[in-house]
Design brief:
Blueprint: E1 13-18, H1 28-49, E2 55-60, H2 67-70, H3 72-88
Parallel strand pairs: 1-2
Amino acid sequence: MRRRSAGLGGIPLTVLSSSRDDPWCADPAAIAERRRFYSAWYPLQEDLARLSSNAVHVVAEQTGHHVHRYRPDVVVGVVLDHVRRARSGCGTR
């Protein structure tokens, strides 16, 4: 993605990712597959965050794919922080 994009400059960007392990998953095969997937997927999330000089990458610990279900507190905090950063106008040019 980063190679194809000219970047976002200083536009506020928030990348919210789930954690490596899903605490609600007990299947050993699924756990192993998720960990393999995460090792490739996490660096891509970091690449997304590098699109802006005003980016934050938040990993919601103890969550599976549905971060909003398991950690709504993290989602609300990330949204409020993003709005604060966007309103401050820092680095948006």
